[in-house]
Amino acid sequence: MTLQQLKYAVTVADTRNITEASKRVFISQPSLTAAIHELENEMGIRIFSRTNKGVTITNEGDEFLAYARQVLEQASLLEDRYKAGGGTNPIFSVSCQHYSFAVNAFVDVIREFGGPSYDFTLRETQTHEIIDDVAKLKSEVGVLFKSRKNGDIIDKLLRKNHLQFVPILTTPLHIFISTQNPLAANEKISLDDLKPYPYLTYEQGDFNSFYFSEEPLAPIDFDCTKNIKVRDRATLFNLIIGLNGYTICSGVISHKLNGENIIARPLLIDDKMTVGIITRKGMALSRYAEVYIDSIKRHCSGK
């Protein structure tokens, strides 16, 4: 087994297509197929199932690829630190819920390590995909929240996937609203105050239960009858402005990213949420991840 073979396997997994993968790793399709077969034979497993529509990853292949990504990441760190003539192309990935502070911290990493070339990925995505991405090492770091309502389920999933959660910020619940919203003049806002306005939440696809929600309160928790689900942060903020809508959140906001038209107000409810970092247990963090985590702490603290 070689690092090159592991790179080939991970590239095939990322593209789900032998032809596309061969282009990315600059070898012929027959050579790539032979290298994958050789790796499978040596390991005694079947990593991929091949069909007319492409390739799919087997269950044992899924586990193997998670370890392969970890080996490649560690090899990259070794080369970056010790190889003569400079390091390799920096690689770093984050999967997160839709937080502006997570984006700001990502920008900080690029500013510090970007250099002439790099390969960085930021995925603002659904909660179950964040857990899956970190478990399979598609992302080194994940960012999500826990509360008293979803904490047990999230913890169970993290244990199942050999992940750990490190708290970054625990805060009372807030809402984001427009500066033009009639409630904007209120110092604090109650759930009854919000009844005339639409509640904006992030859609979670096939995992649309409360436990995977990005908001700490579900519409059923406070008899909300106007609910709009969206997929991205820009749409959510546009609807907050256009419809006098709101979302329930941590209250940490970036006016540079979200504009001056969105403000945060405390919610009059005895409840909290904890935003934290998830990583693989027992895995040494790259210097990119360490800087990212330090940066996200600063942005959450307002420094």
Provide a quick synopsis of the model.
This protein is an alpha/beta fold. It has ten helices and twelve strands. The protein is 41% helix and 22% strand.
Question: Which helices and strands, and how do they pair?
Answer:
Blueprint: H1 3-15, H2 18-25, H3 29-43, E1 48-51, E2 54-57, H4 59-82, E3 91-96, H5 100-113, E4 119-124, H6 127-135, E5 141-146, H7 151-160, E6 163-172, E7 174-178, E8 199-202, E9 227-230, H8 233-243, E10 247-249, H9 255-258, E11 262-266, E12 272-280, H10 287-301
Parallel strand pairs: 3-4, 3-5, 8-9
Antiparallel strand pairs: 1-2, 5-12, 6-12, 7-10, 7-11
Helix pairs in contact: 1-2, 1-3, 1-4, 2-3, 5-10
Please give a structural write-up.
Strands 4-3-5-12-6 form a five-stranded mixed β-sheet, sandwiched between helices. It has a three-stranded antiparallel β-sheet with strand order 10-7-11. Strands 1-2 form a two-stranded antiparallel ribbon. 33% of the residues are buried. It is elongated, with a radius of gyration of 22 Å. The mean pLDDT is 89. By secondary structure, it is α/β, with parallel strands linked by helices. Strand 1 and strand 2 form a beta hairpin. The protein contains ten helices and twelve strands. Among the domains are: 88 residues, Winged helix-like DNA-binding domain superfamily/Winged helix DNA-binding domain (Arc Repressor Mutant, subunit A), CATH 1.10.10.10; 106 residues, Periplasmic binding protein-like II (D-Maltodextrin-Binding Protein, domain 2, 3-Layer(aba) Sandwich), CATH 3.40.190.
